[in-house]
Structure formats: C-alpha cells, structure tokens
Design a protein that fits this description.
Protein name: HNOB domain-containing protein
CATH topology of the largest domain: H-NOX domain
Distance between the termini: 34 Å
Oligomer: single chain
Order of helices and strands: HHHHHHHEEHEE
Pfam families: HNOB (PF07700)
Number of helices: 8
Domain Heme NO-binding: 2-160
Organism: Tenacibaculum platacis
Structural class: alpha+beta
Amino acid sequence: MKGIVFTEFLDLVEEKFGIEMVDKIISESDLDSDGIYTSIGTYQFSEMLQLLQSLNANSGIPISDLLLTYGEHFFNVIETSYKGLLDRYKDPIEMLSSVENHIHVEVRKIYPDAELPEFIIEEKTEDSLTMVYKSSRAMHHFGLGLMNKTFAHFNSTASIVTENIKDDGTEVKFVIKKN
C-alpha cells in the first residue's frame, strides 16, 4: 500500500484526535515500519489494519465509520493536490464511471506499483450508476467516503446503497442514484 495512504491517515488522526492518539496507535501496533512513513514508500496493508484496529479500540468508532471519514478526508487531498484530475469532469456520475479507465491510469503514472481496487461498471445512465468494487482489501467504506465527497464536489447529492457480494467486503456492489 502506498505511503500517501498512511501519511494522510495519520494526518487525519492528528486533526481529529490529537498527536497523542497518533503516538498511541503507533506504539500499540506491531509495525515493521515502526510507524515511519513517506508518501512515496510502499508498506504492508497489515499495518493499516493494525492502525485502524487500534484507533477503533481507543475511540470506540467502528472501523467502517473510520474508513468512511478517511475516504472523505482523502478526497480533499485529491482536490488540493490533483485538481486537474477533477477539472476534467463536469458530473459526479461521469467521474465515478471513469475511475478504472482514467483516474486509476493517472494514479499509476504517479505510483506505478500501486495496488488499486477494481471497479466494474454494470450499468450507467445519466442519473445512476451500478458498479462493483473488487479488492483483496476490504476498504469499500473508504471508497464510499470518496464517492460522497465526489457528489459534494459537484454540488450534488445521491443515495448510495452498498451490497456485499462477498461477506468479507472484498467484493461490494454500489448502487448510486443521483438526487
């Protein structure tokens, strides 16, 4: 997993809970990196799981909610650092439907060895989108946070329903209907 995912997560934890919480979740976890991350480095997904589990234990917030909030935070990072990527789109459905064929292509130019989830478009209309998330990592709530902020970015709203295809969350269907 790319280091930017870790550095931004720790920034969010510091912003929401304080530097003491960052220190606590790092020290409570058994991290090969010792919690020292660079945005361009590559780290084991198991480290992110440990950090999330520790934050969950110390905050009482479910991991799914932590990932949702983190996805929303990460969208702000994209909006600030990669504005040109977002400016290409005029509509949230258009943008979400191009994750696999455009956005992930651009991400791979910056991070060639990034392990990205796969998004398969099942159905698309002007006001709706059905897509399937597939990943070895059950982080679809992170994706949901990104989707929520995508609609906010375009001054729009949507109902987004998730349906687990696999119980472990590694394959999830998103049914999105623009309001």
